Amino acid sequence: MANGDPSERVGYLIWQLSQAYGLRVEQALRPLRLTQAQFSALLRLSLDGPASGAELARRCGVTAQSMGASIQGLTERGLTVRRPHPTHGRIIEISVTAAGEELLARAERALAPAEEEALSCFSPEDGERIRADLRRMLTVLNPHALPGERE
Predict the structure, then answer these.
(1) pLDDT digits (tens, 9 = 90+) for 8-42
(2) Is residue 151 part of a domain?
(3) How many domains does the chain contain in total?
């Protein structure tokens, strides 16, 4: 912390960055009628395959209640489906549909300018280092958020 300045704390800087970047993400997703949580859910389902609502919430770093509302909206639009788990009858699994995969691809294209803007002040090598450093921090704080991580 430089000169004892609390605004130099990593947490504060991450929060400020998250707010600024989140606004750009929200603006990019709005025309697609997607929230950040819905985008995150589609992405995780696409990367990791079917999941229960609770498992998906952990991976996305949100509450189960929040994820439930997000999934409901996606399911109503035909972007996800809910089915009984093949071996655990009480568990309902959520999967992304072909329409959900197509919208996810559109959303990723819509988000590319925000990422390019965020990294525009860095060299390509620095950008890769930043991604690696962020993944390392995420591994410590929420390992379930990384693709391929399972319970």
Answers:
(1) 899 999 999 999 999 999 999 999 999 999 999 99
(2) no
(3) 1
